[in-house]
Amino acid sequence: MLQDIAFGLLTSNVSAITGSSRLIVDIAMYFGLFVIVAMALNFQYGNAGIPNMGCAVQVIVGGFTVSALTMRLIFTLVGGAGVQLRTWANDWDWVYNNFYNVDVTNKYLATKPVLGISMLLFSIAVSMVLGAVMGWLIALPAIRLRATYLMIVLITMADAAQIFGRNIPAISGGTLGVFIPDIFRWYPGDRTVVTAVIALFIGLVSFFIFRTMLNSPYGRLMRAIRENEVTVGSVGKNVIGIRRNILMFASGITAISGTLLAFYFSYVVEANYQRAFWTYWPWLMLILGGPGNNAGTFLGCALIVAMRRISIVQKWLIESLFFFPVAYFENVLLGMLLLLVIMFRPNGLIPEKLLYIPGVNYSQMVKEDVKVDWRGAPKARGASSGISGIFRTLGGGKKEAAE
Amino acid sequence: MDYDAILFWVMIALWVIMPAFIVYEEVRERRALAASESTGQEMEAEEKN
Q1: Cβ distance A273 to A56 under 8 Å?
Q2: Are the Cβ atoms of A298 and B22 closer than 8 angstroms?
């Protein structure tokens, strides 16, 4: 199995994406998608302490943006260009004329690369905005809650989003789903490689954005809120507002992965955006790698995506090694992995390190401060410890003033 | 022209850039933290002396 992958990686001509090359593209695509979600989750939970159990609702916003908005816009533009489409005004026509309309639209898009690319950029931009709006909506009732209640509310919201998609055909075709026009139809090769490159590129860009934000003063403020929000609030910072902003920003980034998944499959159905898949797997990646640092998130993401995809594709091989059915082998394997990590490495494979800011020697600063305190007024410091010490110091101060 | 092959290797390159940068930055930060820690220990030792 591993030899196959290595062989496909090193020697294949990749003139056609098949076999092991297909598996590599598949792993790369899912890695790109999950690295966006996991980095955003690390931004929220690992650094700001917001336990976002509603990642699925943010991803689903991205998918629904493509099926409900982008596709209607494409149909309108293509219809305006004189292409004969069947009616798609009501729910019935929207779902049952979808095959024909998408087929005709694909033929039109085959000669229009600019339209395809602009629709991709439009979808990403709109999904970011709608994801941020969803983050704001989530934050309205939930952000003031304590961690446990916040998690419950967010889980419920993720389920509610899926139920909306299942029961309102105008959004994503209900339980049947809808096909999406292939915006890469102009590309002469395999569409999935293009989407994988775009997903990895956006994953890389989002990594740099999150890294820059975490190294900024705002990142240090986020960590301060995670450690003790009461203290941060007491020095005049708007903790609720900061947490809401973090949730909005991370929601906007997370929604991009839903959009890319829709273009990867050229199909949107609410069942593709299950809570287990888009909330619990990213959480497992975060816990496995170690929350609070990007290296851990990356490692957890890479390990889990590769293990999961390989165990799914090579299930026939795994089945020959065990005496029991392996239908849910990857879930069992990764559930065991979660238990082992929690038992033996609760801080993850790469634990969070101390905060480092280039050019600032913190230990030296701290030690110099301590030196000044201890040498400058050792008796006063010893006397002023605790509430009784405060009164003693005040009393001493009065005596000194009298003298 | 075989665009799939080019994009395939672009994909692999993108896949490699991120971990390479993360490892580079992680090693650099851990070294700087270790240096910072050793500076503090040296100062403590000087104070004791």
Answers
A1: yes
A2: yes
Q: Does residue A16 sit at the B interface (CB-CB below 8 Å)?
A: yes
pTM for the model: 0.82
Half-sphere exposure of A322 (CA within 13 A, CB side): 12
Q: What are phi and psi for residue B12, nearest 5 degrees?
A: -65, -40
Integer CA distances (angstroms), B6 to A13, A88, A178, B3, B9, in order: 10, 39, 31, 5, 5
Chain A residue at shortest CA distance from B33: A356
Residue A16's closest chain B neighbor by CA? B4
- Chain A contact set for B9 (CB, 8 A): 14
Q: Do A356 and B40 touch (CB under 8 A)?
A: no
Residues of chain B found within 8 Å of residue A363, distances taken between Cβ atoms = 36-37, 39-40
Residues of B in contact with A187 (CB under 8 A): 3
Chain A residues with CB under 8 Å of B14 CB are: 197, 200-201, 204
pLDDT beyond 70 at B44: yes
Helix axes A294-313, A329-344, angle to 10 degrees: 150
If DSSP codes are grouped into helix, strand and coil, which group holds residue A267?
strand
What percent helix, strand, coil does chain A show, rounded to 5?
75, 0, 25
Nearest to A205 by CA among B12, B14, B47: B14
CA dist., res. A81 & res. A83, Å (int): 6
Closest chain B residue by Cα to residue A360: B36
CA–chain centroid gap for A122, Å, is 20
CA A237 – CA A218 distance, rounded (Å): 11
* pLDDT tens-place string over residues A325-382: 778 888 888 788 888 888 888 888 888 877 666 556 655 665 555 444 444 444 444 4
